[in-house]
Amino acid sequence: MTKLLHADNLSIQPAGEYLSSPLYSVIGEHIAALLAIALLPLVLWAYRRLRNHATTPTPLDPSSRMLFWLLAASAAAHVGLVIGHEPSVLTALFLADSMLLGIAANGVAKGEPSYRFVRWVLSGSLLAFAVSSFSGEVPDQVALFTKLLELTALTIVLTPLRPTLIRRLASSAGAVTMVVLVGTSSWVGAFGATEGGHHLGEVPQPGVLLPVGTDREATDAEAQAADLLHAETVAGVARFADSEVAAAAGYDVEGIAGLDFHAGNEQYKHDGRVLDPERPENLIYAAGPDGPVLVGVMYEMEDIGVAGPAIGGPLTVWHAHNQICFGVVPPALAGLRSPFGSCPVGSITMPVTGEMLHVFVAPGAPDRFGHLDEDWLNAFVAGTLTADG
Amino acid sequence: MDTSPPQSTLVDVAGTLVFMQGAVGVMSVVESGVATVAGFAPPTNLLLTAILTVVLFLFARGLRRRSVRSRMWTLRIESLLIVWATVDLALAVVLADSGLGLVATLTRLVVPIATFWLLRRPAARLEFGSLRREVELEEMTV
């Protein structure tokens, strides 16, 4: 059998630029908002100088001072959003939000805050964000940063003056509910905006990095190379349909569960061979009713920052992962980094992984490379697919 | 108006920050729970995250009550969180030539450092009673 590509005949190229989910990046339209927050202290200082000390600033206690800065920063961010976007209904809403937040901040600065008003403004701003995310808008880092400021401000204004157990519990529950709502809506927005595939030009899922580029038709040579890779892979791993054979070859097939269990082979991951259809770095199994079902393989590059050979051009787009939470005890995947920047306790954040490519060997798979439709896979594993797939 | 103490101190600000860390922890528990139920993450991380979240809420409450023990343990937890975030920062710099990201820098470095700094200030220490009492308590727990 022809080995497609080995390290000795492979030209190793550094990975180029990646496209990441907006959840973990700053989108261009929001840079003005970031600048507005950064410039806020300077603007306020200049404003006070211009007023020429005509009025003595109201002394504020630390919580009120913090509340003022949080509200003012959020107001500034919304001004930046107005500047950064084309005029639309959305920018009008940003402007209105900015004005309301500014009025709230001004009230706090004067020592005459109406906390009821502040609560309404903050709740409105946070709920509007949640609705927008639930309807498919992906929040980026600037949006989440601004919402965190607002959530902290909300926590302050929800703190009861005359605390009783019930009031404290109610205010804490209110603040926590709002944090969970903002976080959940961010996930929904981030996953809703992606098509879930691994094609050039798509908005990647959270945790997926795709090379920057636009999708195009494959050339004849690329299509032939992709066909060859698929055929060689199907033939090369046929024997691993029996998971015990795979175990004997060194694949970790213990505990196969779910639809895309990746059984890695530590030896093959460090053998210096790339795209070897008889020695793929990982096998992908699904747990079927009658035992494990071999669905595909995942080729993996040994080193981070090295581009995988996309021999089929746009048909075989390699991807990497970012913002992966990796548990230390026990060593295992622990999830994706939260929109609020944290990983579960006991896990570290892997900022980027090496590149990888899925090749699906399941007969009739609608997508031979990249990502397999979950509904199709469910039907395939359950054995309920019709002849036409 | 029925909210927010009119004469709060820096310790109250620290308490708010610790509470927010707990609230973010709740979100992390939800995420960990989903990952665990989906079967691709072990329950260890869920358990540890839940414990830390509860502890943070208890400390936030303790700080409001000016509990010396809460202050002392909050300082220790925040130190641990800063060290853990520094490890992640180092990984990001070495592996991806990047930083932690805007939000993570805020929640994982700025907030813990600010909380630590606020609770270490002399004014805050005074609010928790004399330093001698603190030393005695530390000796008792050791």
Summary keywords:
A: alpha+beta; 2 domains; elongated; B: 142 residues; mainly alpha; 6 helices; 82% helix; globular
Task: Describe, in plain words, how this protein is organized in 3D.
The complex is a heterodimer of chains A (389) and B (142). Chain A has ten helices and twelve strands. The two termini of chain A are 29 Å apart. In chain A, the strands form four sheets. Chain A has a four-stranded antiparallel β-sheet with strand order 4-5-6-12. In chain A, strands 2-3-8 form a three-stranded antiparallel β-sheet, with no helix packed on it. In chain A, strands 10-9-11 form a three-stranded antiparallel β-sheet, with no helix packed on it. Chain A is elongated and about 80 Å long. In chain A, strand 5 and strand 6 (291-300) form a beta hairpin. In chain A, 43% of the residues lie in helices and 13% in strands. By secondary structure, chain B is mainly α. Chain B has one domain (10-141). Chain B has six helices and no strands.
Radius of gyration of chain B: 17 Å
Determine the strand fraction of chain B and express it as a percent band. Answer: under 5%
The unreliable regions of chain A are none
* First-to-last CA distance of chain B: 45 Å
- Summed up, the helix count of chain B is 6
Give the rounded overall mean pLDDT of chain B. 88
Q: State the share of residues found in helices of chain A, binned by percent.
A: 40-55%
Termini gap of chain A:
29 Å
Class computed from helices, strands and strand pairing of chain B: mainly alpha
Unreliable stretches of chain B: none
Strand content of chain A: 5-15%
The secondary structure category of chain A is: alpha+beta
Coarse morphology of chain A: elongated
Helix content of chain B: over 70%
Number of helices of chain A: 10
Spell the H/E element sequence of chain B: HHHHHH
